[in-house]
Amino acid sequence: MTDERADQVTPSPYNASLLAELSEIFESYGRATTSLEDIQSFASNRQWLFENDRSGVADAVRALIAELEHIQYVVPDEDERVEARRVLDAFVQRFLPRS
């Protein structure tokens, strides 16, 4: 088994600061103090600020927004939070690994 992150380029310090902002709102969603719509809006307003730094984070944020929109409009309400948490957790694991 190989480590996927071994070949992954680390986000630039600038992108890392934007990722830290996203992490905060993801955590508030986990505490149920914000909505899926709030996360979408927050990420949408910042998506164009991400640099193309070869880490893939700029494209991943745009894909995340699209996935959250899909969840909001297609997934039944009772499953929405679980599905959104799955998507957000996968994003966090890829770009915001805990040390």
What labels describe this entry?
4 helices, 99 residues, disordered N terminus, mainly alpha
Brief characterization of the structure:
Helix content is 67%, strand content 0%. It is built from 4 helices and no strands.
Report the order of strands and helices. HHHH
- How many strand units? 0
User: What's the tally of helices?
Assistant: 4
Kindly provide the radius of gyration, computed on alpha-carbon positions and rounded to a whole number of angstroms: 14 Å
Mean pLDDT: 88
Give the overall shape, derived from the CA principal axes.
globular
Binned strand content:
under 5%
Report how far apart the termini are.
Answer: 21 Å
- Secondary-structure class: mainly alpha
Q: How would a crystallographer describe the biggest sheet?
A: none
Describe this structure in words.
By secondary structure, this protein is mainly α. It has helices at 13-30, 36-46, 57-74, 77-95. The longest helix has 19 residues, at 77-95.
